[in-house]
Design goal:
Helix content: 55-70%
Shape: elongated
Oligomer: single chain
Distance between the termini: 99 Å
Number of helices: 3
Length: 87
Amino acid sequence: MATEQSTEKNNPPPEKKAPLPKVVTLNKARSDSEGQPSGLGLGAKVAPNVKRAAPIDLVEERLLGKVNAQKRRSASAEENDNAKEVN
């Protein structure tokens, strides 16, 4: 009998956690799903400024070169327009 009482006293009581309000859990669920890509798992996060790998296809490389050149031209033209307006 003495051994039965000692084993019962050694076991810690189970931890009781208070339930979270439904509003908090709903807000948490919404915020988690907003920043999460659809094809990745629950804990996955995407880096914001990830650059694509270099293209292997020659056609894709040429097209990207043309697009980037057009972006540079439009950016420099916009800078020139802004400089003319200031002067």
